[in-house]
Amino acid sequence: MRALSGRGGIVNVRDLGERRIIARVRRAFGGKAPGTVLGTGDDAAVVRSPRSLLLTTDVLVEDYDFRSRLMPPRLLGRKSLNVNLSDVAAMGGRPLHAVVGLALPGGTDVAWLWEFLAGFREAAGEAGVTLVGGDFSGAGRIMISVTVTGAAPSFVPRSGARPGDRIFVSGTLGDAAEGRRLLERGLRPGSDSDAGRLLKAFLDPAPRLALGAALARGKLAAAMIDVSDGLSVDLAHICEESGAGAEIELNRIPISKALRRFRKRPLAAALDGGEDFELLFTVRLRNVPRVRRLSPRFALTEIGRITAGRRLIAVDATGRKKPLKIRGWEHFRKA
Amino acid sequence: MRALSGRGGIVNVRDLGERRIIARVRRAFGGKAPGTVLGTGDDAAVVRSPRSLLLTTDVLVEDYDFRSRLMPPRLLGRKSLNVNLSDVAAMGGRPLHAVVGLALPGGTDVAWLWEFLAGFREAAGEAGVTLVGGDFSGAGRIMISVTVTGAAPSFVPRSGARPGDRIFVSGTLGDAAEGRRLLERGLRPGSDSDAGRLLKAFLDPAPRLALGAALARGKLAAAMIDVSDGLSVDLAHICEESGAGAEIELNRIPISKALRRFRKRPLAAALDGGEDFELLFTVRLRNVPRVRRLSPRFALTEIGRITAGRRLIAVDATGRKKPLKIRGWEHFRKA
Asked: In this complex, is the C-beta atom of B216 within 8 Å of any C-beta atom belonging to chain A?
């Protein structure tokens, strides 16, 4: 960083140039990590792979998937990896390697880039993931594309649900959506602990890797997905892939005290908010007791059951049933 | 497509929606391909992997890496996969799987997307690659991110060059740069066969997979890279990673008749043009005869040798030596 500040004031990525940026990234991410034969700096990375490999990719685009104004670069770096790790968690896998594509406006302050990479590295370290390659380009708006590999000796698909399965979800739902709303209204982390919890749910979600792995290892989950688009949409994905329906008991949906404090009707946020990155999974009846034993450790809640047919039903507190409305994130619209 | 045209006129991706687009992609790319346990439609793909796996990623951004006006979507689809396959070729690998991240303006005509995907599928079919997953997002400008896996029982790094190695390159250099210039000047494929050759070099480059694999299999190449940024830059990469220098004989650099016809001084395009996607590699002296035997099949040319020290030298027709100027693509600048 000395060479940079020596040039006086803010340096942007165009002035620094791709070559020096890559050199810096290579230094920051160190040489060869376990499982890596060749790291960044060749045409392709060469990694040791398990026989059964997970592959998942996510694209984050400024103004569509995030707002730079609301998203500190370090947290954006963490989140851009963690949303991919959440996909690995939803398969019951263990993440191994990451490659990152980064398209940046030439005028991006290099300090932004170092903060982004520091956050990425931090999240990678927490999950035992090795960054093995990447690509840079210019762009009018920031675009981040991350691809992650993982190991999954026994994985959990979306398509494994059967009528009679019980439906569980981890954590609480709707916090991220409310956190986002509070951010847009100008709240910042620090002052209020309830608000802070909601802001963190949006800014710095944690992938449920330990839970996903425990469920896969014990063959406890029959179908699983992470709640990225919203409970209603993601439950619909499980039902569609499994050729089944579902009944959800609305008063069982886990809602945090913090969300209740800020929202008079928190259910809409919990059903359709998205970006919670909790795990939604179905469990055969015989495995329900074993899953309940995991509840204290992973904050699990049983919220309904899989049914025959293809309908998604919401059951309210009085026992009245109505169709569950599928509302969720549409990625071609602006954030 | 009937359902679409039934709505009357152009339909864009925002109107069609992510859900229906993904359904269409899944139909187009078929169900489970060899080597795939789970394809698109789950949180992550599960693939059968070799023990030693290649991973490479490339990002293409509209107005930086390509111009929509000059690039028909079918060829963009082909090229966005093929530039990654070129990286696999440069390792001497065999490509296996691809995931694609696609960020599109909401107003993008769906016909553009189908053409792009048709081109992608075509190139995947030619190389035996399976598309196993992807992600969509909105964006102000088109952004494409592709990650490819590959098998490389014995791979060729950039860092393997030693003083005394001979330097070879495949095909001819500078054609893509000139093709791009001609496109910008308004020429289109069809009329003139020389111009057509140059335009094709830019619009539809072929990854040198068979050559890369042959060189790796026979342990004939000591160091290898694909010429994506330009001969001078990519040779500098090999030398830097290998801790060596190089001497290039300028009058040996392979230049096509077509390029000579359109450029009085074709050498600059050949040295610094980029996007040729030919293979540049070094060969131990004892292996040179075996590589020469591959020449007729792969159009190989010996252009110089690796030296001790770190200098890059250009030798002209009269034997005069001067430093080789390193000029090439800077990705944070607009195309």
From this structure: no
Inspect the interface and report whether the beta carbons of A58 and B149 lie closer than 8 Å: no
Burial of B51 (0-12, 13-18, 19+ CB in 10 A): exposed
Under an 8 A CB cutoff, do A103 and B59 touch? yes
Q: ipTM for the complex? A: 0.90
Alpha carbons B237 and B242: distance in angstroms, whole number: 8
Q: With contacts defined as CB-CB under 8 Å, which chain B residues touch A46?
A: 52-55, 91, 152, 155
Largest Cα–Cα distance in chain A?
Answer: 69
> pLDDT tens-digit profile of B117-175?
999 999 999 999 999 988 999 999 999 999 999 998 889 999 999 999 999 999 999 99
Q: Of the candidates B72, B70, B79, B258, which has an alpha carbon nearest to the alpha carbon of residue B180?
A: B70
A145 CB neighbours in chain B (<8 A) are 57, 59, 101, 135, 143, 145, 147
Counting residues of chain B whose pLDDT is more than 70, the rounded percentage is: 91
pTM: 0.92
Q: Evaluate whether A88 touches A56 at the Cβ level (below 8 Å).
A: yes
CA gap A335, A142 in Å, rounded: 14
- Check CB contact under 8 Å for A48 and B52: yes
Question: Cβ of A275: how many Cβ atoms within 10 Å?
Answer: 22
Tell me if chain A has a CB within 8 Å of the CB of B326: no
A-B contacts at Cβ under 8 angstroms: 243
Beta bridge partners of A52: B48
Q: For chain A, where do the domains classified as CATH 3.30.1330.10 start and end?
A: 7-151
Report the alpha-carbon distance of residue A310 to residue A322 in Å, rounded. 14
CATH 3.90.650.10 fits B158-323, yes or no: yes
Q: Is the pLDDT of residue A188 over 90?
A: no
**Measured between CB atoms, does A170 come within 8 Å of chain B?**
no
B-interface mutation test, from A21, A43, A129, most B Cβ less than 10 A away: A43
Chain B residues within an 8 Å CB radius of A57: 99-101, 133-135, 145, 147
Tens digit of each residue's pLDDT (9 = 90 or more) over A2-51 = 333 334 556 898 888 887 888 777 777 765 565 666 666 788 999 999 99
Nearest to A122 by CA among A95, A93, A92, A82: A82
For the domain with range A7-151, which CATH number is right: 3.90.230.10, 3.90.226.10, 3.40.50.2300, 3.30.1330.10? 3.30.1330.10
Q: Assess contact for A205 and A171: CB atoms under 8 A.
A: no
Of the candidates B298, B271, B277, B300, the residue with the CA atom closest to the CA atom of residue B288: B300
Q: Are B279 and B213 in contact (CB under 8 A)?
A: no
The CATH superfamily label for domain B2-151 reads PurM-like, N-terminal domain (3.30.1330.10)
Whether B36 has its CB under 8 Å from any CB of chain A: the answer is no
Location of each CATH 3.90.650.10 domain in chain B: 158-323
B32 at interface of A, judged by CB pairs closer than 8 A = no
Long-range contacts at B289-295 (CB < 8 A, ≥ 24 apart): B290/B218, B290/B220, B291/B166, B291/B168, B291/B215, B291/B220, B294/B211, B294/B214, B294/B215, B294/B220
Interface check for B42 against chain A (CB to CB < 8 A): the answer is: yes
d(C-alpha A206, C-alpha A228), whole Å: 12
Least reliable range by pLDDT among A137-141, A190-194, B262-266: A190-194
Rounded to a whole number of angstroms, the distance from the CA of A154 to the nearest CA of chain B is 10
CB contact under 8 Å between B53 and A43, yes or no, is: no
Question: Residue B69's CB: how many other CB atoms inside 10 A?
Answer: 9
**Mean of the per-residue pLDDT values of chain A:** 90
- Residue closest to B335 by CA, chosen among B103, B58, B68: B68
